[in-house]
Fold this protein.
Amino acid sequence: MVPHSRPTLGEEETDAVASVVRSGQLVDGPETAAFERAVADVTNTEWGISCTSGTSALHLALLGLGIKAGDYVAVPSYVCVALVHAVRYVGAQPFIVDVDPETYNMDPDALKLSAPAGLRAAIVPHMFGLPATVADVMSLGVPVIEDCALAIGASTHGHFVGSQGELAICSFYATKMLATGEGGMVVGHDAAVGERIRDLRDYDQPDGHTIRYNYKMTEI
């Protein structure tokens, strides 16, 4: 078997996990809050909301933007299948767009030539550390969700990945740039959208009429 990627783990990580276990605070503690702030800072966004995976982050982001059944969401032809799953979770239809053969990022010109009338959002990953041309996709006038799973911390023309779209998501799966084993995050600028997403993630609420999701990240 050829290794794809390996996380760099050592005594510092071991000590940090042990500290959380000793604290007895396994969810909704200071480690999660600090991590959310740090990811918001590195993506130059106002807030971060952690969750269980990159897939759940995409699901929450789409719900936060009001994407629903009958809508089309653009996704690139070369990407993790999680994007397609998340689009289908909300009943929307993935609209597959060709990628640039040199960067493997979504080709904005291909999207502009073929975008359907019902296009309501685009998920734009930054593949293999190469920032995508988010502004070109945004020129279509639909909300953009940046996928920073493979490029968190990268920047281009003064913009950090995750800072330009309406929302951005991160994955912290074992093979990603930052690895927590499992985990994800939604980051953004709009406070009202952030409140909506946090409400959807905090599933144990008195109002039982809204469907919410058990998507919280642990302190570990």
User: Anything to note?
Assistant: The chain has a mean pLDDT of 95. Helices lie at 11-23, 30-42, 54-64, 82-89, 108-114, 134-138, 191-201. The first strand starts at residue 47 and ends at 51. Residues 201 and 213 are 5 Å apart (CA to CA).
